[in-house]
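Page 37, top half.
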Amino acid sequence: MKTFKSTANNNTFIKQLLDVINSNTMRSIINKYSGNYRSQSFDTYSHFFTMMYLQLNESKTLRCCITELENDIDIDCNVYIPSLSQLSRKNSTRDYRIFEDIFYYVLRKLKKRLGVKQFNSQFKQIKAFDSTIIDIATKLAPDLYYDKNISAIKMSTLFNLTEATPEKVNIVKGTVNDRKCIDGFIENSNYLYLFDRGYYNYSWYDDLSRQNISFITRQVSNACVEEIKSYRTGLNDVYDYDIILGSDYSKNKTEFVYREILTFDKDGKEVRFLTNIFDLPVSKILELYKMRWQIELFFKWIKQNLRIKHWIGHNENAIKIQLYTALIAFVLIRLIQEEINNKYSILKITRIIRIYITKRIDLLSVFLS
C-alpha cells in the first residue's frame, strides 16, 4: 500500500508530504495539548507547516525562508505565515509535545511500511544507542548552561540499525547524565544492543545479563579488569579474554564473566570491546560493532543537513520543537526512500524536495520518473 497518494487536486509538494499525517490525528494531537488555546490567527497547523517548510527549504537564511513563504502564491491559503518574531515566541510557548507526538506518529507509519526485518537467525534486530550534544551560545540560552560558556541540549537516541531509522528519542538538558537518558531503550532479549562507551557501574552489565540482553560496547580505558582466561584468535593484534569487571575492594565487582576483545586502531592505540556474547567468533563481534557507526551518521545528518544551526527561540521548549521538526523531516524522507525502493539516497531525496517544495506536481512521479 502506498504511503504517498497521487494528488488529484494539484496540491503542492510540501502539502503532499505533510498529508501523510492524518488530519484527524493532527486535530487529536493539537487538542490533547490545547495547542490552539489563545493562538489567534497563528494556529498550530500553520506553526507546524512553517517549521517543516523552514526545515526542508533550500534558502540560506531563516528570514529569506519567511519572505518566500509570505510571497509564494502556491502555498496553501489556509496556512497563516508568521513573522520570524511570532514564530520565535510560539516556539517558546507552544507545547513541544505536539511535535514529539507527530514524530512518533510518522515513525509508526514508517515502521508499518518497513514490516519486520531480521538481521540474522540469532538477533531479530540490532539496535544502537548514543547521545549527542548540540551547542548553543550561553548568552542565548543561559538556563541550558553546560560548560565553558556553552549551553547545550542532549539528544539521546535508540537507533534501529536493521531498519536504518530512529526508534526512541530523549531530548534533555546537556548536563543530564547519559545513563539516565537511556531508560526504556533496552527492552527485548531477542535484540542485540550496541553502545559506544562503557559505564563505571558494572552492576548494570549484570542486570542486562540476568535479562539475557546481548550487548557489545566500547570498554572504558581505565576499567578495573581481572583476566580469567585468554584465547588464540588467529588474527594479528587481536586478543580475546574472559574477564571479571571490578574488584572486591571497590565493591563494584561483576557477578558474571564477560568477554573482552583487545585490538589496536590505526595509530597503534589500544581499543577494547566488552560483550556478554561468547558463541560468536572475534571477527563477527568486531563486524557487528562496526554497524554502530550508522547512529553516528544519523547524528551527523541531523546536525549538518537539517536546519538546527539557527535557533528560532532559545528556551528548552523552542529547541525541542526545532529538533523534533528535524526528526519528523528525517522520517518523512525515509518514508519516501522506502516508497521508491531505495532508488535514491536520503541526501538526494532532500535535494529534490528542496527543488520542488512548492511546485504543484505529483510527489511520487518526481522520484519514480
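Page 37, bottom half:
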Amino acid sequence: MAGPGDTIEQSLYEVRRRIHPRAVHGWFAAWRVALVIATQAVFYGLPWLAWNGRQAVLFDLARRKFHIFGLVLWPQDIVYLTAILVIAALSLFLFTAVAGRLFCGHVCPQTVYTEIFMAVERFFEGDRQARIRLDALPAASPALARRWAKHVCWMLIALWTGITFVGYFVPIRTLVPDVLALQVDGWRLFWIAFYALATYGNAGFMREQVCKYMCPYARFQSSMFDHDTLIITYDSARGDPRGSRPRKADPGALGLGDCIDCGICVEVCPTGIDIRNGLQYECIGCAACIDGCNQIMSRMGYAPGLVRYSTQRALANASAAKGLAAHLLRPRVLVYASLILALTAVLVTSLTLRVPLRVDVLRDRVALGRILEDGSVENVYRLQIMNTAEAMHRFRIDIDGPKGAVIVSPDDVAIAGASMGTVVTAVRVPPQAGPGSWPIRFHVHALDQPTVQVVERSIFRVPQ
C-alpha cells in the first residue's frame, strides 16, 4: 500500500489482451462468408480477365492510361475518378445512416482478410479453447508446429495478395513469371512486399487494433447515426436481470430475464466487446453476437432476438418504433440516396456521350508568323491528338479561320487505339489578311466514324 509522499506510476495505455474469437454459425455468418468469397473472387480474378488482347482492368501509371474493360481513361479524365470517389463516399454515408457500420462488418478489406486469416487459424489450431491452450504451452512444445504452419499459410496468402495488388498496375501475366524467375525490379518488389507485409500484419496480428485505433471511420461514425439508425443492440428490458439457470427452469419464477449470462456474445466478438454494455465505437457491425446469442436462445427454448438489429428509438419506447418504410424514408437517407442517384446518372450519361477523341492545339511560339515570298502568312501548330477508343482511326484535320486559310501539310493522320499522336501542321493565309490576331478553329474528325469529332480553338497571327 502506498504511503504519503510515495510516487505511484500508472500507465496511460491499456495492455492489449489477445482476443480469440469463437467460431459461430448463423444467417449473418453465412452472409459474411458469401461476401468474403464474392469480394475476393473479384479482387483476385479481375486482373486475369482479357479484353481486346489486353488486361481488362489495368491502371497503367507508366503510360498514364486506365483501362477498365472497353473504357480508356487518361489524366484529363480525372473528373470521372472524382465522381466515382464522391459516389463511394456518399454510399458509405448512406449505409451508415441506414444500418450503422454495415460496410465495416461485411466488406471492409480489414474485416475480409481478418476473416480469411482466422479461418486458416482455426484450421491449424482449432477453435477458441484450443487456441487458448496452445498459447499456454512453452515455446519448445512440439504442438507449436501447427502455429508455424499457420504463419506459412498466412505469408503465402499475403504474398499472393501483394502480387495481385501490383497486378492492377503492371500486367499480371508478365508480373507473375517475373516473380517466379526472381526478375522483379525494385519498385515492383517494394510494392509487393509492402502490401504483403501490410496484409500479414493487419490481418494476422493487429486485427481489432486497426478497427479500434487506426481507422478514422470508427471515430466519426457517430455523427452519421440518429435514433432511427439500425444498430446491433441488446434488449436489456427482456434480458435483465441476467443469470444462469437450468434449461427447463422458468426464468420468471426465478426473477431472471432471458439472458443466461453465458458470455457467448463476448466470445464471438472480433473486437472483444460486450454488446450488453450498449453501443460502442469498437463495434464493427459484423453481427456475430446476434448469431451466437440466437444459438443459445434456441437451445434454451427462448425466442430469438435478445441481441438484434434495432434502433435506439425502438429500444427506448417500443410503441414509438417505426416501420421499415418510415425507417428508410428519413430526411438524411433520402438526401444521400438522391445525391447518389443524381451523381450516378450524370456520370453514366457523361460516359455514354463521351467522345473518344481529345485534341490539344499548341501554337508555335518561336515564330509569331512567317511571311512568304508571295505575301501570304504561315503559322505552325502542334496538334496532340488522343484516340481514347480501342480501335485505330484515321483523322482528318480541317480549319475554319480567315478567308482563304488552308492547311499546307498534313491534313490527316492515323492514330492507334488508346494512343496519342502529335502532328505538326502549317496553316497559310492569303496576303489580303490584315495584321493582328485572327480566330481559327481546327475540326478533327474520324474518317471512318464522322460522329467522332472535336473542334478546338486557337489564333492565327499576322505580323505587321
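Margin note: Residues 226-321 form one domain.
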